[in-house]
Amino acid sequence: MCHHWISPVFSSLSPGHSRWLPLPEHCSNTHPRCFLGLLSCLFLAGLYVGSLYVWRSSSPRDHPSVIKRRCASVLLVSVVSPAVADVSVWELMGLRMDGLVAASILPLLLTMVFYLGPLVHSAIDNPKGFTGEMQCALDVQSWRRCAGDAVWLRNQVVAPVTEELVFRGAMLPMLVPCTGPTGAIVTAPLFFGVAHFHHVIEEQRLGKESMSVILLVAGMQFLYTTVFGAFTAFIFMRTGHVVGPVLCHSFCNSQGLPDISSALQHPHSSALLFSYLMGGLLFLVLLFPLTDQYFYGPIPICSLAPPPGSVC
User: Fold this and answer.
1) Which segments cross the bilayer (predicted)?
2) Identified catalytic residue from 63, 133, 196, 266
3) Do 305 and 312 touch, CB atoms closer than 8 A?
4) Within a domain: residue 19?
5) Within a 13 Å sphere around the CA of 44, how many CA atoms are in the beta-carbon half?
């Protein structure tokens, strides 16, 4: 007998229940639901990107007026995404109180560990060293200036919040019942990576680079956004919170890609390379301990997974 499972997302069960109902032997009934889930993810990705282009403007993407309009668009998409995803339980999208403090600290700490090399690099280049870096981080006036900068608000606040809600919070609950936790972590980032190809249109319009260069850059962006999407999807699945992915996303946007080539040419290259290596190793060592369910309580989205759920 073939057993399929209906999750609370797609059934009439109350939010507090996570029972599984075995279906009869018509196993093929699950395939349309999974296909519909994939189409819904594709629709959400298209809706998110398409909302950026509903405003007609000849200004570049970093112009304040363009940023404000696009921020309004993606915020609206984030609000309506639960309806598109058919997600009736907000907790499944990672909006819950249980374990919130740990979810706000530990995933971000894990990400900072990965960036140990770039952080040490920045501190070495600062005339005041680590003290200077801490002073910059705690400078209230600097934060006020950032809050008034439209580009900063887009990159550090609006993009992380809206992208994590749509591409993790809304998509993963649709994918997990069909693909399982691991499959969802692999599948969801592909939509996230493809969604960044729209930059090709803007770069082509500006005409500053040849099409071959634009496509090469877009391919690289697809690669690292997909890898990053897999990481935040993993954090979401392990913690059951969207706040961790949002904060990690914001931090990574502020840091950019680790510049190893610059570290190789630095006068203190040995110390920097050691920092990069230690950051990577510590990240791997701490990846599962810092995302252990002990800190976050029962993970709602894991109740959707057909057993066994390895990541959960």
Assistant:
1) 35-54, 74-93, 99-120, 213-237, 271-290
2) 196
3) yes
4) no
5) 34
CA distance 189 to 203: 23
Task: Identify the pLDDT of residue 114.
Answer: 97
Integer Cα distance of 46 and 63 in angstroms: 23
Per-residue pLDDT, 159: 93
Q: Is-catalytic flag, 163?
A: yes
pTM (two decimals): 0.80
Question: Mean of the pLDDT values across residues 35-52?
Answer: 85
203 tagged catalytic: no
pLDDT higher than threshold 50 for residue 15: no
| pLDDT digit string, tens, across residues 186-222 | 999 999 998 888 878 777 777 778 888 888 988 998 9
Q: Is residue 21 part of a domain?
A: no
Whether residue 5 has pLDDT greater than 50? no
Say if residue 308 is preceded by a cis peptide, omega within 30 of 0. Answer: yes
Closest Cα partner for 187 from 176, 197, 198, 195? 176
Number of independent structural domains in the chain: 1
| In a domain? residue 6 | no
pLDDT of residue 291: 96
Angle between helices 211-239 and 243-255 in degrees, nearest 10: 150
The residue to which tokens 């608000």 are assigned: 153
Full domain range(s) for residue 160: 34-304
Other beta carbons less than 10 A from residue 76's beta carbon: 14
In the chain, the largest separation of any two C-alpha atoms, in whole Å, equals: 70
Q: What letters, b where the CB count within 10 A reaches 16 and e where it falls short, cover 143-154?
A: eeeeeeebebbb
Choosing from 4, 91, 121, 163, the catalytic residue is 163
pLDDT digits (tens, 9 = 90+) for 59-76: 777 888 888 888 888 888
CB count within 10 Å of CB 67 equals 20
